[in-house]
Predict the structure.
Amino acid sequence: MNIAEYAAGFAEEPGYLDHAAFGPVQTAVLEEQRVLGTIQERMRFGAMETLDEQDARVRTVAARLVGRREDQVVSQTATTPGLLHTAFGLTGGVLVAADEYPSLPLALASAASATGGRVQPVVVESGAGWMTPSLVQERLTDDVTAVAVSLVDWQTGYLADLAAIREVIGERLLIVDAIQGFGVVDAPYELADVVATGGQKWLHAGWGTGFTAFSDRALNRLRPALSGPHGTTGWPTEVPSVKPGAAGYQMTRIDPVAQARMAVSLERLVSVGVDAVQDRVADRVERVFDIADEFGLSVESSRDPRERAGIVVLRPPQGRLTALSAALHNHGVTLTTRLGVARVSVFASTTDETLDMFRDACLSYATMQ
C-alpha cells in the first residue's frame, strides 16, 4: 500500500484539524466493526473462536510495531489502564513532569497513595520546560528507578528523544505514554520498557482500543497489582495466580470488536509504513507553519523536524483567541482552542482543501478589528 492509498481510507469532512483530540475512524475499521458485529449478532457455530482470535491478532501486529514479542504485549481499552497497571507495579522513585497529560501523574499519585509510599513520584515542577534529555539528567537521583514521559507533549507537540533519554537514564525503567505520537512517529519504541497507547487518536481506531507493551526488564521488575480474572489462571479448580508475561496486566476481557478495530488500524499502518505516514504529516505541518507565519501567529511548537510530530500550537496576541476561534468556526475548521492557544493537528489524510480552509480562516482573523 502506498501513502495515497492509505490516505484514501479516511473520510473526515474538509476542515478537520483535530486528530490529536480524536481521529475520525477509518473506513476499513468501520467495515471490520460491522463484520464482527454481525458475528456477535448471529453467533453461528465457531463464532466464539473467531472472536477469541482477535486478542492474538492485535498482539501480533502491535508487537511488530514496537519491537517486542507477542507475549510482551497486552490489549487495553485505552492508554490510561496500561499506565495504571504499570504505576501500581513499580517500586521506588519515578521521575515525571507535572505538565504531562494527567494520565501519567495521576496514575503515579494513585499508586503512591495506595502503596503507602512504595511508589514515589519525583515531580518536575510545572513550567520547567520540555522533558529533554538534559532536563531528565539534571533531575535524576539515586532514588529514581524509573522515568515516565510522553512521546509527544499534548500541549506543545514536542517530540521526546527516546534514544537520548535512554542513554541518560541507563538501566532505569523508561515508561512512555505514546498516545499523542503512535501512528505518526517512527520512534525507537524498543528502547522503552513500557509503551502504552490508545487507538482513538492517530490510529483512528475509535474509543475502547489500545495496548501496552513491556520489555523483559520491565516484566522482571514490575509486580502486577490489578490483575482480574482475565489476567489470572487456575480458577475454578485452584486459587487464581497471575499469568506470566504481559498477560497478567489486565483485569477483564477486552471487547473483541474493539480488538478487531485496533488490529485493522495497525495492519494498515504496517502495510504503508510508519515512516511514510510521518513524512506526509511532516509536509502538512510545514504548510501550517507557512500559514501561521503569513498571518503573524506565534508558533509555540518546535520547528525542528526531530522535535515535532503532528501537533502545531499557535498563540495569537493577548485577547485575540476569541477572534481566531470565531474565524475558524465561520470557515468550518475544527481544532482545539484552550488557555490562549490554538492546537492544530494534521494527519496523512489532511487535504489541501482543509489547509486552504484553515488559511481562509486565518485571513479572516487577520482582517478583524
